[in-house]
Automatic annotation (TrEMBL):
<protein>
    <recommendedName>
        <fullName>Lipoprotein</fullName>
    </recommendedName>
</protein>
Length: 141
């Protein structure tokens, strides 16, 4: 019985770290969807820093989303007999038609050394593409 209680307590604690706030129906919700084993973080809305890097939530209208994307460049893309290289990149995405109560998905990935991010609506329609704002070499966590 004690083992069951301990397991239940540990399981519930792990869920707290993954808890996401409930979307505000008066705002647009932007879910982050990194590609593969990478890391995508929400950094800013309209150049104002965010407290929570797991999602964006914005008022209806036009906004600029700032994000940080970390990914690994495969050894084949770096050079012969090379090791994989970690990239730490900043991207921005401008979109002028966010709707209240709508859900959006921001997908990110990389081609060789170049990162990319795209905004999709709930029907998987491509709405906008991000612009790379700079990348560093090896990322530190």
């Amino acid at each position: 019985m004690r083992i069951l209680l301990v397991a239940l307590a540990l399981t519930s604690l792990g869920g707290c770290a993954l808890w996401m706030p409930r979307p505000d129906p008066n705002q647009a919700w932007i879910e982050l969807a990194p590609h593969g084993e990478t890391e995508l973080k929400a950094v800013a809305v309209d150049q104002k820093p965010l407290d929570d890097h797991r999602y964006f939530q914005v008022t209806p209208g036009s906004h600029q989303l700032g994000m940080r994307y970390r990914f690994e460049v495969a050894p084949a893309d770096v050079g012969r007999d090379s090791e994989a290289l970690e990239r730490d990149c900043r991207l921005t995405l401008d979109y002028d038609r966010f709707n209240a109560g709508a859900r959006y998905r921001l997908v990110a990935g990389g081609y060789g050394f170049r990162p990319w991010a795209r905004l999709y609506d709930q029907h998987d329609q491509l709405l906008a593409k991000a612009t790379e704002r700079g990348c560093g070499g090896v990322a530190t966590r």
